[in-house]
Structure formats: structure tokens, C-alpha cells
Amino acid sequence: MPHLFQSVALVGNSKDLRVAECMLGLAAHFHARGVPVLVDPSVGLVFPADSVVPCPEQSFASRADLIVAIGGDGTLLYAARLVAGHSVPLLGVNRGRLGFLTDVSPSCMLEDVDSVLAGRYSEDRRSLLAARLDSHNGKSVRALALNDVVVNKWETGRTMDFETSINGRFVNSHGGDGIVIATATGSTAYALSCGGPIVEPDLDVWVLAPICPHTLSDRPIVVRAGSKIQLRISDRFESRGQVTCDGTAIGDLEQGDNLYIESADAQITLLHPPGYDYYRLLRSKLHWGRGGHDRQPDA
Asked: 132 and 114 share a domain?
């Protein structure tokens, strides 16, 4: 059953002139169609009178039926944190660089928005990671991630030494700059730059990709989603790492600390306008088939 979008919230960095232009255009477009538009009061744009409703971003999930994220994938990741655990879907307008998640082009933005309002779209449910950082001092921090949980070496020019376990079984002792634990969604983000594979987003797997491993045999591995992953600093070396979830730091990983990663109960839903094709998206963003062999095969 298509959603009935009675209100829409806009998320984006209005200091970017390209984002600001899209936000103003979308606000006017929705207003002309009688759809209330929610915008955080901190957005420093001058909207036409009565075309938007001031609303704190933290209330979007309870007051909006759709959130439109304008910007790069980082903007959509931020919006995903706003709606995690709620049924509010996300639509991404690409005003960033690659835009694997924000797949609506500005050139056809209004047309695609009208298609979504009319119920012509596909729903794409994405799973989240749940990270818990337990410090040796008893403090515990939790966070969700749509793309990845990353452990990077911190405040040192030396490599970091740490251990991984999966489902209670020891996997490996690592030396290097850290590790990326990515969902299928996040396989095209940081994990890709670490040599990890591209994973179809509807596959229920995760990628563990070491960052600049000191041992060349320390390769990325693919594990079943829902596994319970544990990371800890090796006892015999002084190392320190920083833990980030979708690029947001949640704390440091030191000796005596434990980082646990498992499936989150929450999911998020992306909306795609008609004609969405994941492989066409890959060809476009990664410049595949530029040698003249990118034509579609004959039917």
C-alpha cells in the first residue's frame, strides 16, 4: 500500500547554495500541492510566507510522513538517524559527490517528487548496525549505523593492534590502521576504499574490511548479518582507537574496553522513483563501461 504523504520534512545543509536552491524549490512545489512542509528553525533561508512550518529536526519522525534529504550521502545518513525506529521513509536528492543513497537527480527532482506523491515509487528497506562501546570504567555508549562502524587508530603514528571475535569465536589479531564493519548498504562507502567487495543492498551480509593492514594476508571477509562481533585492543601492545558510527565519533577504544556490534532492531525505508536501477547507479557513480561497451544488450 502506498503511503499517504500529508506532511513532508526537508533536511539539508542550507549553507550550501545548491542545497538551498533545492530546498526553496521543493518547499514551493509541495506548498503548491497543498502538502505542509516542515523545516527546522535553524535553516537560514527566507521561504515564501506560510509555505513552511517551523519544526525541530528531532520531531520530524513524529510529525512528518516523508523526509526528503538534500545533499550527499552524509545528509541521508543523518536523516536516517532521525527516523531510525520509526516508519517514516526517506527520499534522497543528490547534491553531493557520489550519491549512492541520494539517487534523485536535481534535474528531474520535481518530476520524481510528483511520482512519489502519486504513489509511484519502490520501497527499499535497509538494515542497521547496533554498536555498544563498553569502557573499562563502566561507561557504556550505544549508537546505530546504516553504513558502517569504524575503528581507526587515534592520536598515534603507529599501527593499532586489536583482536576480533565473531559469535564468541576468536577470528584474528590485527595490526594496522583499524577496521570497517559495514552493512551491505555501506559496502560502497569506506569499506570499498579498503578493498572490500560491492554487495547488493538486499543481501543479508556484513563486510569486515581491515584498514591498511600490516599483514597482506589480513583480507576483507563477508559474514552473515546478525552475527555478534566483538573488538578489543590487544593486551600486549599500547594502542588506542576511535569508534565512529556513520562518521560520528562515539568514543575511544582503549585497553580493557570492548566494542560489540550486532543487528539493530530498527530499519529504515528508502523510496526510489520509477526507473530506479542499482546497477545503472553503480555504472554512473563508478564510471563503469566508459570504453564504449556500456550499451544495453539487445532484447
From this structure: no
